[in-house]
């Protein structure tokens, strides 16, 4: 891949004393000129290629018309038309969480990486939206993690980024209703660029990516027993995933108000302020640690994705939280599905996002392909010139991530 030099991008303005001021850059991806021009056609393929150039790991496109017609929960519609009536397409951008964070003794590295991944993703999305708008197509970015106070007690965002990913052809929902991408499983974050540019939409996957009930590793690992049958108990999940989230802050404040009403001394109130909870709130304000994504167990143990095969299969093989009761529950759910019993998470409306064709072995096929590539890479490393190849990104592709292969 040839990087465009700064001089080739645009003439640099000259500042005082003849110094050249560097061209403003957002910090995302390759530092190159936008390919979009006013009054020139912009294709979906070019938009997706640009997103990858800027640093997106995966990218897909969904039709705003389809998203408006199929809200995840019709009672609380999370649709583009509720945000803007002019949106025609949503460009879904995916960033994966580096697998190394899931190999650690505590969850803190994952929490910190969450923040860094979100920052990077926001930069990429903003840069893409800005470039499209300069080309004459109004565009903007939706928050990846914020929720709307008016939507189901503030538990829903303006758009469900998981469902954006499914409608953009990037994966399907798993047993715990995280989106599972074939490349990275659930270890991803997503955001959307809403644009008034009409782009060809990607077709959703019809094969279920999640192995499902016969796997149930997310169910086994969940400390809050929040994994339902292709659903999630949000309150039970939040107790662990949002240890210092909004509800915890409210509980802490209520305790302080109650203590003061009971006549607690100043020293006692100050002691409350010096608690671990109060420290957690402060730290969450600084770098979101503890305010969300605090519990990554379902992400860490999911066997979908080349990153799992490469880096997590061994350290996550044993699930300490697994109990006989959880195994029995998983078997009961498997039997219920086999008998064709009604399941809310797989009803006629929700099956669209789980995969209407069911699970047909995509993870097994992926694992075999991964092993073949590993063997091929090992053979290449033993051949003449292997040392040069190891240091030349033009001559070999990483072991996982189809969108990372040299163009």
Share in helix? 40-55%
Taken as a percent bin, the fraction of beta residues is 5-15%
Order of helices and strands: HHEHHEHEHEEEHHHHHHHHHHH
Indicate the low-confidence ranges by residue numbers: 1-22, 389-407
Polypeptide structure, described:
There is one protein chain. A hairpin with a 5-residue loop joins β4 (172-173) and β5 (179-180). It is globular, with a radius of gyration of 24 Å. The chain folds into 3 domains: 6-237 and 294-340, no CATH class; 243-287, no CATH class; 363-407. The protein contains 17 helices and 6 strands. α2 packs across α5. The chain has a 4-stranded antiparallel sheet, sandwiched between helices. The protein has a two-stranded antiparallel ribbon with strand order 4-5. By secondary structure, the chain is an alpha+beta fold.
Attribute tags:
407 residues, alpha+beta, 3 domains, four-stranded antiparallel beta sheet, two-stranded antiparallel sheet, 17 helices, 6 strands, 41% helix, globular, disordered N terminus, disordered C terminus
Sequence-ordered SSE layout with sheet pairings:
Elements: H1 6-9, H2 44-54, E1 58-63, H3 64-69, H4 80-83, E2 89-96, H5 108-134, E3 139-142, H6 161-167, E4 172-173, E5 179-180, E6 188-195, H7 217-221, H8 234-241, H9 246-261, H10 266-273, H11 276-287, H12 297-301, H13 306-312, H14 324-338, H15 351-354, H16 362-382, H17 386-390
Antiparallel strand pairs: 1-2, 2-6, 3-6, 4-5
What's this entry about, in short?
This protein has 407 residues and is of the alpha+beta class. Helices cover 41% and strands 7% of the residues.
């Amino acid at each position: 891949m040839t990087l465009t030099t700064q001089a080739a991008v645009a003439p640099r303005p000259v500042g005082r004393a003849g110094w050249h001021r560097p061209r403003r850059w957002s910090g995302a991806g390759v530092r190159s000129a936008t390919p979009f021009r006013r009054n020139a056609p912009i294709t979906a393929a070019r938009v997706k290629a640009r997103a990858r150039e800027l640093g997106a790991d995966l990218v897909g496109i969904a039709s705003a018309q389809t998203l408006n017609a199929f809200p995840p929960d019709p009672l609380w519609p999370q649709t583009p038309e509720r945000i803007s009536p002019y949106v025609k397409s949503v460009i879904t951008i995916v960033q994966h969480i580096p697998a190394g964070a899931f190999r650690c003794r505590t969850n803190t590295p994952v929490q910190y990486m969450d923040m860094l991944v979100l920052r990077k993703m926001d930069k990429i999305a903003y840069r893409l939206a800005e470039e499209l708008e300069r080309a004459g197509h109004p565009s903007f970015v939706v928050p990846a993690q914020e929720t709307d106070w008016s939507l189901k007690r503030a538990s829903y965002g303006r758009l469900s980024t998981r469902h954006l990913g499914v409608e953009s052809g990037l994966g399907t929902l798993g047993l715990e209703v995280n989106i599972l991408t074939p490349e990275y499983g659930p270890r991803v974050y997503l955001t959307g660029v809403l644009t008034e540019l009409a782009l060809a939409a990607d077709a959703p996957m019809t094969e279920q990516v999640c192995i499902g009930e016969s796997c149930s590793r997310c169910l086994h690992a969940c400390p809050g027993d929040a994994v339902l049958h292709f659903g999630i108990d949000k309150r039970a999940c939040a107790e662990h995933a949002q240890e210092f989230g909004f509800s915890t802050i409210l509980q802490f404040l209520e305790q302080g108000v109650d203590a003061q009403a009971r006549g607690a001394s100043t020293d006692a109130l100050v002691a409350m302020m010096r608690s671990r909870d109060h420290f957690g709130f402060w730290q969450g304000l600084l770098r979101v640690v503890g305010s969300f994504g605090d519990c990554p167990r379902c992400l860490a143990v999911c066997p979908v994705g080349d990153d799992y095969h490469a880096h997590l299969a061994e350290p996550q093989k044993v699930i300490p939280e697994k109990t006989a009761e959880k195994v029995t529950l998983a078997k009961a759910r498997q039997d219920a599905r086999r008998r064709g019993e009604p399941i809310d998470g797989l009803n006629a409306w929700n099956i669209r996002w789980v995969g209407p064709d069911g699970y047909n072995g995509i993870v097994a096929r992926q694992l075999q392909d991964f092993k073949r590539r590993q063997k091929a890479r090992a053979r290449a490393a033993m051949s003449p010139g292997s040392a040069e190849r190891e240091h030349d990104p033009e001559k070999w592709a990483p072991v996982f991530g189809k969108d990372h292969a040299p163009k």
